[in-house]
Each structure stands twice: as structure tokens, then as C-alpha cells.
Amino acid sequence: MSSGPAHSRHQWSCQEIIEKVRWRHQTGRPLNAQAVARDDSALLAAARRYFGHWNRCLEASGIDPASCRPRRVRRPPGYWTRERIVASIRYYAEQDHPLHAHHMQQTDNALLAAATYHFGSWAEALEAAGLDPQQIRRTTPRSAEQIIEAIQSIAASDRSQLRDSVARRHHRALYGAAQTYFGSWAVAVTQAGISYEDVVGNRPWTKDSMMAVVIEYVAAGFPLEQAFRRHPRLKAAILREWGSLSRFQEALGSVRTHRHTGYGARLRALREHQQISQERLAKLAGVPLQAIQAYESDHCAIPLNVASQIARALKMSLDHLMRQLDPELGSVAQ
Questions:
Q1: Residues 6+ apart with CB under 8 A from 121
Q2: How far apart are CA 160 and CA 134, in angstroms?
Q3: 1 within a domain of the structure (yes/no)
Q4: Least confident span in 36-40, 121-125, 299-303
């Protein structure tokens, strides 16, 4: 069965996005951001990259955003009892629906609120339904794409949940998985097509915060320019504080802020030598297809943790891969 108009999964154009949105509208599929994040996160991410906001994408497609909001079922006062709450939780569990609080906030916020009111917390309501809250919390995404989808799902509901301190406290499993796959939470949010600066708000830059955010990007393998693109006020703040970028780079000490061009062509040559497609390498390495394409196009550097996954996929050691990508580089194991 066709899933809609044919389009390139990884090279979206503005017209393709609009066509897919109109197709969803014509076929009666939900167009609220939560629903799209759930069943076509690639479309949602592409729309946000092109239009900045999902509602602006809907407007560009000739659709009134207000008409796409999910209808809330109004239940009479006193509807929720402890028994009905437990029965509803068990129903969702039987349907294999994710039972993390942030997922339930999007799916059935009334149930979540009632459970918190009657049982004191969502965790206690899960226990009353015979479920293990700790086991549910430990359920982590198994691939980079799943992490990105989870982040986009949270963003569709409440972007404030993506602040580092909030995510670390309320989405611990996802936060830990994001650090493992992307090197840091901020980089994971950025890879999900979301401006991390928009998430943290317009708080004034301090000397420590400027150093911290740049080190976070560079340590994850991204060039300094990537941090400037994602944090528009950062470069100006650095120039005010240090007077020049060269002085700032000196202050960074041993942290490398440059990237090696040419990595992409060498990675492509290694992949093609083994007769592996980009799609296959992405699957074997557990990273999004878009990431492999970006690395091979030299659009961004390859984070060390991702390089390790690619090395395993290509059946070689990390040290050997890095030497192939950069012959002038010494052993990464030093």
C-alpha cells in the first residue's frame, strides 16, 4: 500500500513537504504535530527545517492550523475513579503503547492528570496497575533515529522539557542514550532539527557558558561554525568577551576546533570498496541515513563515538578507520 506521494526520504524539498502535508489532509490523516511526530517524524523534522514551525508549514500548504488540533474528549465530572485509571493503564499496556509520562502526556493527558491526582504520582498509578515503573523508565531507544524521534515527540508537546536539567531529571533513559549516541544532549537536540538556543531561551551568555557550549560541540566532533549556526548570539558574545576568535580558540587550550575536510570522500571510498550502500551502512552503524550522507558530503565532522560504530560496521578497528580517514592522524588510542 502506498504511503503517499513519492519523495526522497533524505532530500526533502519545500514542494515535497507541502505535497505530503496536503496528501495527509486529503486522506484524513491527523495533522497535529504530536500525531505527525508519532507516524512520520521525518516529515515533521523537514517541515521545521524549512518553515521554522509546523504551523507555518500548514499555512504554506493552505491548511488552517486551528483545524488540525486534536479534539479533546470531555468527560463528565467524577468520571475518573481509581478503578477506571487502572483499567485504562492496563489497556494501553496491552496495546504495547509506551507508558513513559511524556508519551502519555501526548496520548491521554487527562489520564495522566487523573492518575497523578488519585495516586499521588504516575509511578504509583503504574504500580497499582501491576506494572514496574523502574522497568518502564529503563526502556531506552535502541538507535539514533529512535532517539531523534523521541526528542521530536517531546518537542511537539512541550519544548521546555528539552532543557538539559529537565531532560536529565524527567527523561533519564533518553538523556543517557542521547549522550551515548551523539556525545551530548545539546547535540542530540540539534540533530533532531531543533535549535537548542530556542530551548534554553535568551539567557545572557557568560564566559563559562560560552566555553561550555563550544567545548560540548567540539568534543562531539562538530566544527566551531556549527555551534555558531545553532546559537546565533554566541559569536557576537565571544567577540565581546575575548576580542577575537583567535584569542577565544587559544583559551580553549587543547580542544581542536577545526575539522578535516576530505573525511567524507575517504569514508565514501571505504564504503564503496566494501560494496555497502549508504542505507546499509546507516543500519549497521545504528545512525540515521541523513548522518551518513552529511559525513560523506563533509557537511559535518564525524563524532568519535559514531566513528567507532562505523568502524564496527565496516569490520575494522577504530584506529584503522581513523588512519584511513586522516593519514596524518596518530593513533586514536594514544
A1: 115
A2: 24
A3: no
A4: 299-303
Residue 257 domain flag: no
- DSSP result, 30-99: --SHHHHHHH-HHHHHHHHHHHSSHHHHHHHTT--GGGGSPPPPPPPTT---HHHHHHHHHHHHHTT---
Is residue 272, in this structure, part of any structural domain at all? yes
Residue 232 neighbours by CB under 8 Å, 6+ apart: 197
- Any residues with CB less than 8 A from the CB of 127 and at least 6 apart, and which? 133
334 domain residue, yes or no: no
CA distance 44 to 150: 12
The answer, yes or no, to whether residue 124 has pLDDT greater than 80, is yes
- First vs last C-alpha separation in the chain: 53
- Which of these, 113, 250, 82, 105, lies nearest to 171 by C-alpha position? 105
Torsion (CA) 119, 125, 127, 129 in degrees, nearest 10: 120
CATH of the domain at 279: 1.10.260.40
Range of the domain at 62: 14-68
Count of domains for the chain = 5
pLDDT digits (tens, 9 = 90+) for 40-58: 878 887 887 777 678 778 8
pTM (predicted TM-score):
0.32
